[in-house]
Amino acid sequence: MSAPAPVAEWRSYRRLLPYIRPYRRGLLLVLAISILSTALGLAQPYLSKLMIDQALLRRDMGALWRIAGIMIAVTVLGFGVNILASYRYVRLSAAMLYDMRAALLRHLQTLSPRFYASFRLGDLVSRMNSDVSDVQRIASDTLLSVVSNLLFFIGCVAMMLWLDWRLFLVGILLVPSSLAAFTHYQRRLIALTRDMRERGADLGSLLVDTVMGMRVVTALRAGEHEVGRFKAKNDAFVGAMLRMQVASYMTGALPGTLMTGATSAVILYGGWRIIEGDMSIGTLVAFMTYHMRLLSPIQTLMGLTSGLASARVSLGRIFELFDTRPDVEERADAAPIGRVRGDIRFEQVAMRYDRDPVLRDMDLAIPAGSICAILGPSGVGKSTMADLIVRHADPTGGRLLLDGHDLRDLRLDDLRREVMLVDQSPWLFNDSIAANIGFALSDVRTADIEAAAHAAGLDAFLARLPEGLDTRAGERGLALSAGERQRIVIARALLRRPSVLILDEPTSALDGETEALVAERLRGALPQATIILITHKPALARIADRIVTITDGQAHVAQQPEPAHA
């Protein structure tokens, strides 16, 4: 993906509005609480002026007690209001960020397997984890701080103008220079932050690639080679991080130093005015307090720019994922479907990836309730046919029909409930075998899981396990053999009792005896379903009603005289 322009990164904040709108009332309440907190904070310096001018200089003990009591009350109330504002805002920001994470996860579920095959896994994990976490951290901490400090800055300016406008002009002499330095380094910081994110994604992708391929690395004695590649990527990441840190430091330190010079000018001019009898000591003390507090929100806001710049880059990277269009989109008027018979037809179906044709005007009928074996060498389009039937992709020409309905006219959720694909790379979650078979079925019964496991030929395997179905499959199922993983995902599919079951090389890792057992039980588990077998295995092909051979993008049908399951 190409990097978005800086303007697009600024627009990323505008794109947060759909996630903010549901919480606007709560945010307005937080804003009102923040305004009250600011007002309480602004009252303190003015109370200091009253204490000096009306109590200390006049030696009025009663006034001193009253003002001191008010100061304590304002301090305690301000403390409570700040806690309330922070608590309310963190709750709201967490809810908003959850909505964004959930929306991103739902969007990623619409993307085709081709996206995940071409997109770097480390980069994807970095965007979903690091970038979203960065936005969550900024949303829960930085943005509230920005609002609070901005309100306090405006209040300090108003109070200083009210106390003495001439002293105010002296205090802001160096503000233009401070802002110019801030703007210069902020622009540099944005570019460096994006570069650091990209280098971090490179590093993460390398680590994921190396860990997942560790068996190959070990077998080829390539350990030092991988360490060298890691060092190069790590050096690039550290270099980008250091450049970003220098720019971040300069963004806050240089403008802050210039503003400190303005404070010295205020002390000199205000002191001269007091000596000349043109200003009270209380006024200068209050003004200096406001000016010093004015410097604090400016420095805080400048220091927060690195976080805001980082969040802006993170948002840009997150919204790049949102902007990735799915290969398959459900029509607004898509029709719902109930239980289907499972009659499948390819009508002049063509499919090409980039410029390479895979299927060429294919015509094929697979009757409802039949078992169809699809054969052919690797790369002729067998798995592409499976992807088209479950709408992981749409054909570039022609159409596919299910019970006479164009697949593109049907609701995706209904289609994938009725048509299920078990692909050639079985995936298990790091959970128990029972949880993997019953995945996402909240009300599934143990008896049904056991029946599905039996139909998939898992009985003897489970009997050898001390914990049986409660045995954990391990990370990506790697605690089990490839054949065991294949039978578990077959059981997962059988449990859902689809109307159409597509098995893409489902027994490639099984021995002949186990394969024959699975083949024998398959039809009994789904007596009415249409079963499509993409296979090179004779035992599975023998149970088919018909055999389809794919050559040169075309389907050639051979009828079986006596189906094994008849």
In a nutshell, what does this entry contain?
This protein is an alpha/beta fold and 566 residues long.
List the helices and strands and how they pair.
Layout: H1 6-14, H2 17-20, H3 24-56, H4 61-108, H5 113-118, H6 121-163, H7 165-171, H8 175-212, H9 214-219, H10 223-275, H11 281-322, E1 344-353, E2 356-366, E3 371-375, H12 382-389, E4 397-402, E5 405-406, H13 412-418, E6 419-422, H14 433-437, H15 446-455, H16 459-463, H17 482-495, E7 500-504, H18 512-525, E8 530-534, H19 538-541, E9 546-551, E10 554-559
Parallel strand pairs: 3-8, 3-9, 6-7, 7-8
Antiparallel strand pairs: 1-2, 1-4, 4-5, 9-10
Helix pairs in contact: 1-11, 3-4, 3-6, 3-11, 4-6, 6-7, 6-8, 6-11, 7-10, 8-10, 8-11, 10-11, 15-17
What does this structure look like?
The structure is a single chain. This protein is an alpha/beta fold and 566 residues long. It is 63% helix and 11% strand. It is built from 19 helices and ten strands. The protein has helices at residues 6-14, 17-20, 24-56, 61-108, 113-118, 121-163, 165-171, 175-212, 214-219, 223-275, 281-322, 382-389, 412-418, 433-437, 446-455, 459-463, 482-495, 512-525, 538-541; strands at 344-353, 356-366, 371-375, 397-402, 405-406, 419-422, 500-504, 530-534, 546-551, 554-559. The strands form two sheets. It has a six-stranded mixed sheet, sandwiched between helices. α6 runs antiparallel to α8 (175-212), α10 (223-275) packs antiparallel against α11 (281-322) and α15 (446-455) crosses α17. The longest helix is centred in the middle third of the chain and has 53 residues, at 223-275. It is elongated, with a radius of gyration of 34 Å. The two termini are 53 Å apart.
